[in-house]
Amino acid sequence: MLNIRLLRIKILLVLIVTSPLIACTIVPGQHVRSFSTQSSMELPVTENNEAILKKLNIQTINAQLIIDLERNINNRSLGPDNVANHYFDYRIGSKAIKGTPNQESYSQYRVGPRDILNITVWGHPELTIPAGEFRSAEAAGNVVGEDGTFFYPFAGVVQAAGKTVEEIREELTQRLSRFIEKVQLDVRVAGYRSQRVYVVGEVTQPGVYLVKDIPLTVLEAINNAGGVTSLADLRNIALTRDGKTYSINLLSLYEGGDITQNVLLEQGDVLNVPDNVLNKVFVLGETAMGRGFGVRPRSLIMNKARMTLTEALADGGGVDQETSDAARVFVFRSGIGNSEIFHLDAKSPDALILAERFPLQPRDVVFVDRAEGIRWNQIISQIAPTIQLLNIFDGSLRIQPFTTQPLGIPR
Fold it and tell me: Which residues lie across from 298 on neighbouring strands?
C-alpha cells in the first residue's frame, strides 16, 4: 500500500513538473499559426491622407505581382521616388527639400575677406613686395581685411571683396596711371581663405575645405575628403545652405549620370554624408545561419539600399532544411505610407526566381516559419530530461512516452 501511494505521488509530481513545460512548448517560439488571407491584428495604414487601423490582406508573391511591381518605375533602384530616397528623412524627421538648390552657372572667383592678393607692377619693383627665398607669395601678399578692402601705395584703399581679380586689376591700373605711364600690372590670389565649406559624416577625412578659383562641386568635395566610407548612404546626402536643407542623390549621379546632382558649393555650405544603418532588412525565423549557436535572427545592411528577397534569404543563411517550412516565407513591411504583408511559397526552388525579382525595402522583416512537426518534437525533447531525472531517484518508476508497457507497480 505504501508503494502504491509513493507511486501516485511520483506520477502527480511528473504531471506537476511537465504541465508548465507542455503549456509553454505547445507553440514554442514565433510562428504563423494558421495561414489565412488576412493579418491576425489590425495595423496602421494611410487612406485618404488619414491614418487608420485595419487588417491587411496577405499578398501572394507570384508572377502577376512581380509584373505589377516592375511596371512602377519607382520600385527600381534609381526611380526618382524610390522609397529608399525618402526613408532617411522619414525616420529622423528631417524636412529636407528633395532636389537640388537653384543656382547660377559658375562664374569667376570673387575675392573675399582674409584672401591674400599678390600684385606685381612691371618696371616698378618698389611697388612689388618680393617673395624671395624665405618668404612665400602668400606671406608677401596683400591681405584683404574684414571690411573687404586693402591698401596699396599710390592707389590708397581699394575695395576688393566681391570683385574678380580682373576687376581689381582694372581699378588699380586706373588709379596708378595718374603716377605711372603705361601701367602694366598683374593681380592674382595667392591665398584662398575667405570661402569655406564643411564636409562631415561618412567620409574618410571630414573637415573644412576651401573654395578656390576652380569650382568646388559636391563630387569634388567628397573626393577631396578621401571619398565615402563603406557605411555611407549615397542616396540621402544632405546639403545645408542659407537655412535650408536639400537632399542629393549621389547614386543617381554615379550610376544614372544625373549631373544635376553635382551641385556647385558655396561659402558656408554644409555637406553631410549620412550612414546607412537605417537601410536594413531583418531575417527572422528558421534560417540555417547560426543553427546550434543561438544566433538565428539577422539584420542585413542593404548595399546601396538594394536587396531582393532571394539575397536576404541567402545572406541570412537560407532556410533551415531541418526545421523550416519553406512554403511559409513572409515579408512584413511597415515603412513609409502603408503596411503590407507578402507570402512566398518557396517549397519549390523555382519560387526563388520570383523572390529574386521581388525588391525589398528598408526595414522589411523576412520571416521563415517553422515546420509543424518540429514543435511536437521539441515538446518531447523538453519533457524527456525531466522524466529521466525522476527515474534516477527510484528505478521502479519507468515512464516511457507513447508506449503501452506497464509501469511495473510492485504488489
Answer: 283
The 10s digit of each residue's pLDDT in 116-145 is: 999 988 888 888 766 555 556 666 788 999
Residue 48's CATH number: 3.10.560.10
Query: How many C-beta atoms surround the C-beta of residue 363 within 10 A?
Result: 20
CA proximity to 85, closest of 278, 299, 220, 254? 278
Q: Which residues contact 45 (CB under 8 A, 6 or more apart)?
A: 51, 52, 53, 54, 56, 338, 339
pTM of the model: 0.74
Q: Say which residues have a Cβ less than 8 Å from residue 1's Cβ, sequence separation at least 6.
A: none
Amino acid, single-letter form, for residue 102:
N
In terms of residue numbers, what domain contains 344?
Answer: 43-79+279-370
What values do phi and psi take at 340, rounded to 5? -145, 155
Compute the radius of gyration of the chain from its Cα atoms: 36
One domain, residues 101 and 120: no
Strand, helix or coil for residue 311: helix
Q: Facing residues of 308 across strands?
A: 359
H or E element, residue 382: helix 372-393
The CATH number of residue 172's host domain is 3.30.1950.10
Backbone dihedral angles phi then psi of residue 310, each to the nearest 5 degrees: -65, -40
Three-state SS for 201?
strand
